[in-house]
Structure formats: C-alpha cells, structure tokens
Amino acid sequence: MASAGAVRSAIIALLVLVISATSAAAREYTEFSPAPAPAPMEAGAAAPATLSMAIVSASVLISVAEAVVYVLIELFIGSLSFDPIVVSLLVPGMDVNGKDDLKIPLLEPSEAVVLDIKSVRDVDQGVRTITFKIGGMECASCSLSIESVLQELNGVKSAIVSSLQGQAVVKYVPELVGVKAIKEAVEDAGFEVTDFSDQDIAVCRLRLKGMACTSCSESVERALSMVEGVKKAVVGLALEEAKVNYDPNVITPDCIIEAVEDAGFGAELIGSGNDGNKVHIKLEGIVSPEDMNAIKCSLESLDGVNHVEIDMEECKVTVGYDPDLTGSRSLIRFIQESGHYQASLYIPERRHETEKNHEIKMYRNQFLWSCLFSVPLLMFSMVLPMIPPYGNWLTYKLHNMLTVGMVLRWLLCTPVQFVIGKRFYVGSYHALRRKSANMDVLVALGTNAAYFYSVYTVIKALISDAFEGQDFFETSTMLISFILLGKYLESIAKGKTSDALAKLTDLAPDTACLLTMGDDGNVISETEISSQLIQKNDILKIFPGSKFPVDGVIIDGHGYVNESMITGEAIPVAKVPGDRVIGGTVNENGCLLIKVTHIGSETALSQIVQIVEAAQLARAPVQKLADKISRFFVPTVVAAAFVTWLAWFIPGACGLYPKSWIPKAMDEFELALQFGISVLVVACPCALGLATPTAVMVSTGKGATQGVLIKGGNALEKAHKVNTIVFDKTGTLTVGKPEVVSVVLFSDISMDEFCNITIAVEANSEHPIAKAIVEHAKNRLPDHKSQIGNNSAVKDFEVHPGAGVGCKVGDKTVLVGNKKLMRLSNVPINPEIENYFSDNEKLARTCVIVAVDGKVAGAFAVTDPVKPEAAHVISFLGSMGINSIMVTGDNWSTATAIAKEVGIENVFAEIDPLGKADRIKDLQARGKIVAMVGDGINDSPALVAANVGMAIGAGTDVAIEAADIVLIKSNLEDVITAVDLSRKTISRIHLNYVWALGYNILGMPIAAGVLFPFTGIRLPPWLAGALMAASSISVVCSSLLLQTYKKPFTYTK
C-alpha cells in the first residue's frame, strides 16, 4: 500500500507540474498580450480577430487538457482523491469542502480571487487561520517544499501553498506556535513573505478605578502603551473606562489588567471584542470540574457558538453566539438534553451602576467619619477659645508649654490624616512611582506640611518652657474633610452626566410574550419569557401600552407606535403589516404581532448605545489644552508654593515687612507656611480634566435622546465650525419615495412589452427611482405581473454611476437612464423627446429614458416630493450664518426647480458619487468648513470627504461608518439640531475652562497672599481646599446644564 501511495503521489505531482506550467504560460500570454484595438471592418481587420480567436482557443484547449488529465487520473489510479496540494495548485483560492467545490472553473482568472489578509478564529477547536503572500516561487516543487517546512512546525495543523497565486493558507494553534515563527520558517526556506499580517487585533474594554484628573488618565494610557502586545489604548476620564487594542498572541486581558494595577489603579474587564451576543447560564447538578469542561466542549462543538467561558466556583457559563445560527433558548435546551443538568438564564447585575453607588456611598461615609473628628477639632481650635469661660480649660498646661487643647487636637487629627486620608498617600505613592504627579500629591504635600509642622510645635511645647508656637491640626483635618465633601458631590454630579445613556439602556422591557405558531398559521400557545431568551424569527405579541423588546417587522395588526425615546419625534407613527419597529419604542394602541429581525447587540437601541459610548470614550481635540497643562501643572504648583513660602519667610525674617502683618500667636515661618500650603491645595488639576469629557458625555447622551447620534468630541468640534452644508437631493431634501406620474412611448413597441422590458432591467437596481418605475410598470400590466420568460433572461447587467443601467434582455440591448447615458451610448434623441424632457423638468420631474437596440422606446416622468420642512430649514440655516448648497446626479432642470422651491441658490447637478466628493474638496480649498448631508446609500465618498458627514434617515441602520453624525429620522430639522448642539457644547466646554482656569488663575495669587498687604485678606488652607473642591463641582454642574438643551427649530405644519 505504501508503494502504491508513493506511485500515485508521484504521478499526481508530475501531472500537476505539467498542468501548472502550461496554465501559467497560457495565463501570462492571455493577460499580458495587448488587446486588439477596434478597427473598421476592412481587410486589415482580420488579423486582430484571428489573434483573439487563437488566445481563446488556447485557453479552451488547456481547460480540456486539464479535464482529460483528471479523467486519466481517475481511470489510472482508481478513486480520485483530491489532495490539498493539487487543489491549491490547480484551483487557486479553492478550499476543499466537498463536491460543490468542483463546480469552480479550473482555470478561473486570478482577478476573480480576492486575496485579503485575514486572521480568523476557528471556534470549534481554537485554531486560527492566517493568509499571506509568498514571493519567489517558480513551480509546484517550491510550494511543496514550503508546505513541508511549515508542517514540521509544532502547532501547525495544515498548510496549503499555491504557486500560481503566490499565496499560503496556514491553520495553527496560537498556544503552540506564533505567527512570527511561521513567517521566519518560510523566510529561512529562501522565500520572501509579503503582505504578512503579523498580528491579530483584539479589543477589550476595562472599567478603571482611582482616576482623579487628566494626569491619571494619561498615566494609565502610558502604562498600557508600554505593555508589549498593546497596539492602542484610549482612556476616558469621565467615563472611567479604557478601550485597548491588543495582539492576543502576545498578551491577554488579564495581563493588561495587571499592568493597570501596577500603575496604581484598579481595573476589571467589562467587555471584549467577541461580545456580540452572549447569554449567561446558571447550571445545577454539577458535581465535578469535569462536568463543567464537558459542557464547555459540547457547547464549543455547536454551530454558531463563538466562545465559551466557564465559572467553576459559581457554576455559571457565558456563551457568545451568532444569532443567525443559534439562540439563547436553543443553548439552554442543548445543555439540559445533553445530561442530568439543569440550566437557567442568569442575568448578571449591572456592575457599573453598583460601583457608582458604592463610590458615592464610600465618599459619603468617609466625609461623615472625617466630620466626626473635624467638627470637635474645629470647636477646640477656633470656637471655644473665642468663648473665655468655656474654653479656658483648653489652655491648661500639662507639661511645660504643652496644653490640653494641643493634645486633643493632635488626637483628633491623626485618624483623619492617616486613616481617612490614606487614599491620598496611596495615590501619591503610585503617581510618584510612575514619575508623574496628580491632585493626590498636592493634597498629601499640603496636609503633611500642616500636620508635621503641628507635630513639631507639640514636641517643641513639650520640651520647652518658653515656646509660643501655633499648631495647624485644624488645617489638615478641615482640608481633608472639604476635599472628601467635594469628591462626594462630584461623584453624584458625574453620575448624572450619563443619565441619558442609562435611560436609553433601560428602554427595552425585561419580558416578552412569545407565540408558538402551528403549520396552519394559528397560535398554539403564548408564553411569557425573558427578553434575553428571544431568538431571531420568533413571533412576539405586543399588547397596547407595551414596549417592543427587540427590532422586528409587523406581520399582523395595525396601531400607532411612540418612537420619541429613540427618534425624538413626539407624534406617534402609524404602523401596518410590513413596517419595521424599533426595540424600546411603545405600542400606543392595537395588538401587534411582530417577527424578530434583530436581537442583542444588533438592535437599533444597542447600536445607538454603542455609538454614544464610543463617542464618550473618544478624546476631543479641544481637550489637548487640558492635556498639555496637566503635564506641568502639579510641578509648577509645587514650585509656586515653595517660592511663596520663601517670598514670605525670608523678607519676614529680615524685617522687610511690618510685624503687624503677622497674626497673633504666629511667627514669620508659620505665616509663610500657611501661604505655601494654601497655594498647594487651592490649585486643582481635576477641574481641567473634567471640563471636556463631562460636556461631551452630557451632549452626546442628550443628542441620542433627540435622534442625533454624534460620534465623539472630534465630530462635535468640527460641526460647530461648519459654515457650508451640502445637501443631497433624493431622500434628503425630497421625501425619497419617487412616484411615476406619466409614461410615454416614442416607438411602435407595445405598452405591455415596454413595461416587461423595463421591469426586467430595473428589477436589478436598488435605486429609489428604479423601484418606483418597476412598481408603476407592474401596475400597468394585466394582473400586475411581469410576463418575462426564459427567453428574456437578463445578461451583462452593468451600472453606469450617475447615468443609469444597461443590459441584454433576451436578444435586445436595453439602456435605462438619463440623457447622459444616451449620449455616451450614441442613442439619438429627437426634438419630440427633448420637448418632453423640458416640459417635465420645469415641473421638477426627472425623466428616465428606455432605449432598445440603440433607439429610444419610451420614457417615464418621475417626481419626488420635497419635504415640507425643507424650505424652513434652509432659511433657518441661513439665519445661523450657514450657506446651503445642493448636489445631485439629477438633470439641471429638475435640480434647479427643486433648489428654487426650497430656497437654495447654489446647485451642482448631473454629478456622479465621486464627483460629489470632488465638489466638496473644491469648497474646502476655498476655505469653507463643509458638512455633507446624505441618505447614506450612494453618498459615502462625499460623507468621507466632508469635514462633517451627516447620514440622514438612517432608521435602524445606525452604524454608518462614513458619517460623523447619524440622524435617525428623515427630518431635516435634525441638521439644525446637530449643528446647534455642537455649538452649545463647545461653548460650554470653553466656559468650563473659564471655571477651571479661573479658580486656579485667581485662587493661586490670592492664596499666595498678593492681596494681604493691601486688604489684610488671606486664604486659610482649609478654605483653599474648599475652593479646590468647588472648582470640580462647578465644572461638572456647568456640563449638566446641557441636559436642559432644547431644539432651536421645530417644524409644524
């Protein structure tokens, strides 16, 4: 058997070499031979035709030869076994999966195989696949040698190399072998590796703890970026989250969390890149870890299961799945049927809300504990001494100059300084260890200076009988108490910045009514289930007043749906069978049956939340100011405090200012020390760090409730500068549902044949006008059905962007489009047709010509009504100082008529999608800040080219990558809302900077004693600490005022 196998392999390899060489030569000849230029039908024109026929004949002969060789192999060897090597060489890009693969042409052109560099996970066995290109291969023996080298690597499951395509597909186990080792093995074999994806990119989200200011967020980013395998890290201060792109072959999320903790901050994993749809399942009947592992392996073997995570201690399993292949109920049923286990849905608690409440409670408790010590201390140091009969006992001397008041103040201050204030020491230690400084450093320096100087005075009073110094224990205690009060109020205010997002998250109901349908379409049963158990294609019953749990399509019933919580539109929308509904909206009246189309992370509500969360995590360019200041803020403050102390101590010691300036019971050193401590604690870097992210959080959340999704601070900052808005026509300024108002024949063709031909062509187009024409043509036919037969099959369908479409219907060549397409195709247009065009274009109608075999057969006149609010919106934008321009692929007459109706003066017509982008670039070259408003269908190039892209009328399709701002409704007034909200937000950010910088710029000189010589006003350290806390609170409260935002314009009929 071994010799027979060797002989068979040798014969196959020999035949492969022959076929490969012949095929490669034929391809090279056919691909690189110059195409014959078109020439008149003269005697000399036969040569190019003969050459073309020769090339085609050669290709056909080679294909026949390959087929014959396969048959010979079958006859000679017996059962034909498709060796992967042979398949990879003869059929480039083809993977051997079964008999269906044999239908692929053996000599498929190389252009038909797109070689994308990819790395995907084989979820069944934890195997990954990587595809890359190899240079320097000359024959099949090269591919064989590379395959043998790769297969020798421990961890490589399979390797298929195609010499013709210069491509390798390698399946490997990442735990055993890395992609770098695979690349080096090929290079060591003497071949060049190109377009090699040397890493997978995975994404994880972390919740962070312990960040106080911009310096903290920068420290976390810096710590993450220094970790090997981390490609990008973005940290949101206000959101207290981090998004990390990393190479899973190099590092794991646990290592990333460890790096954050080493930097002195807390971190926990809240999501990863495979968190598409997942279900949490609680298991019962587990007796050993082997049971859990068996369940995990069983689940991983199911189709549609992406990943499985098990919790041995809690007996819980988390399963990520593809909703198109399986669902949560199916997974639970599978576990229950696979053994003696009980499985039930487990809904984990919302840890973010729990942690927020815990943080608020922690700061409140710490503040109350500090008050328990600081209030009596304040009484002993500042109140009772002012009341002689009641405070005399505090001056009783215990030994030498040590009084009862000193000892009491020391005892009351110490717990606050070292127990309650421990967080400041810990924060300072971690900050200094990573060679940075934050607010904790300032607080620790200020309180330690006050405390340890006070301890010095106590010791001095104990050992001296003439010392008359004053302690500052109340300074340290009151300072910590006020800072904790500020943190408590700030945490409450920061929690409210995400209220809008929390309300969106809570829109979906917890339960749903699931219907079980019989084969005859009747309802068999109704069951109330958790919304987490809904699967695609389920039939749900929605009662009046109930919310839709997921996205779906109405299959039975009529009613009105309130979509205000998603779109901001207060008026309920009428819904009939076939209409889409959005999860989280309310069924006002009527009992509706819906078929589920999207669940979990695919629903419109989930996508809205994802966009808003991503926007809140992104860093706005305006925040760069705070980032720059934070780098040198704390060192500058420390230096300023030291200079302040010197500036007051040295002149005082030298007698350069009157002794009367020094308060009683103080000396020059103590006065200078108080000024220095006040400078330390009045400066607050926190307010600067919160100025931008809190405003962005509130505005993006508020915009989401108004139906305006803003993708981050960058989009906000660009949108507020917009002075020119370019509108698409169809679906943007117009309703987007064209209607055919007339049809005319210009030849002797019958109306039925004309309609049938038009339907055959336009049925392949997704353009709104094409759909309107198809619908109208069908209505003109008997029984409203097209009579296209097999002899009228559509072939060679071709789209001409901005002009129309063309194809062959049977033996007829048909063109459907505008005059531009007719001119390009040399189709004559007579005066009668021109008159028909001009008459309709004056009425803002679009004319679509149908040409058959080079002659105009007829034409359709299509109108698309203008949105009723369009003219009012354009006028309002003008009052905002924004110039409006319309750009469309429609003809000039129709475009001019529409523009005149809505009040737009500048029009660009008869422009294809790429031309729209060019017009926007021309405007930008003239110094304009341009926003493009389009329906997202064919406007992607223009949306990307514009400074700000706005996709309008996205409906449930909210994840439009090209747009910076997504307007869920089709209402143009949201364009005004988007621009106005961005302007209000940027203004609020600037005001926040005024608050933040104002406290520091005004507070530090006053704390340093600039006003003291002239007015006698000085800022005690405890009051300086209160001002520092107030600065952060004022910034957050200023951002919260954006929650009162109202639309500047609302159209009413």
UniProtKB/TrEMBL annotation:
Protein family membership: Belongs to the cation transport ATPase (P-type) (TC 3.A.3) family. Type IB subfamily.
Keywords: ATP-binding, Copper, Copper transport, Ion transport, Membrane, Metal-binding, Nucleotide-binding, Repeat, Signal, Translocase, Transmembrane, Transmembrane helix, Transport
Phylogenetic placement of the source organism: Eukaryota, Viridiplantae, Streptophyta, Embryophyta, Tracheophyta
Organism: Deinandra increscens subsp. villosa
Alphabetical list of InterPro entries matching this protein: ATPase_P-typ_cyto_dom_N, ATPase_P-typ_P_site, ATPase_P-typ_TM_dom_sf, ATPase_P-typ_transduc_dom_A_sf, ATPase_P-type_domA, HAD-like_sf, HAD_sf, Heavy-metal-associated_CS
Coiled-coil region: none
Protein name: P-type Cu(+) transporter
Localisation per UniProt entry: Membrane
Signal peptide, first to last residue: 1-26
GO biological process entries: plant-type hypersensitive response
Main location: membrane
TM regions (residue ranges): 50-73, 367-387, 399-420, 441-459, 471-489, 632-651, 671-692, 993-1016, 1022-1042
Gene3D superfamilies documented for this protein: 3.30.70.100, Calcium-transporting ATPase, cytoplasmic domain N, Calcium-transporting ATPase, cytoplasmic transduction domain A, HAD superfamily/HAD-like
Catalytic activity: Cu(+)(in) + ATP + H2O = Cu(+)(out) + ADP + phosphate + H(+)
Residue ranges annotated for the HMA domain, each copy included: 128-194, 202-268, 277-343
GO molecular function terms listed in the Swiss-Prot or TrEMBL record: ATP binding; ATP hydrolysis activity; copper ion binding; P-type monovalent copper transporter activity
EC top class named in words: translocase
Topology term for the membrane: Multi-pass membrane protein; Peripheral membrane protein
GO cellular component, one term: membrane
Enzyme Commission identifier(s): 7.2.2.8
